[in-house]
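FAQ

Q: What does a record look like?
A: Structure on top, sequence underneath. For example:
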């Protein structure tokens, strides 16, 4: 049975070593902009994995406190919402920059 992989699972965790070896020094360090997005993507991955683990524990009867599942679910939803808002704001900023006439 095929499962659908979330988009954030398909994104790279960090720059690969091959890219880091050929990139100039300024690009290796990463920009604050890309660091923010990378940390948001990592937060989505982490909270989604935690939520999935809690769902498994709940389904198998190993979870003593069902509130932990609710908390993990809320954390995962908030991290996805934050990532979407970051994307939306960056797209708005990009569109504003493209409208500037020089």
């Amino acid at each position: 049975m095929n499962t659908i992989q979330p988009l954030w699972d398909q994104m790279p965790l960090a720059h690969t070593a091959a890219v880091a070896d050929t990139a100039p020094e300024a690009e290796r360090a990463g920009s604050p902009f890309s660091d923010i997005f990378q940390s948001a993507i990592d937060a989505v991955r982490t909270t989604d994995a935690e939520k999935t683990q809690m769902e498994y524990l709940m389904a198998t009867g190993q979870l003593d406190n069902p509130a932990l599942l609710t908390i993990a679910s809320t954390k995962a939803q908030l991290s996805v919402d934050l990532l979407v808002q970051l994307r939306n704001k960056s797209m708005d900023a990009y569109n504003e920059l493209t409208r500037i006439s020089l």
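Q: Is there anything notable about this one?
A: DSSP finds five helices and no strands in the chain.
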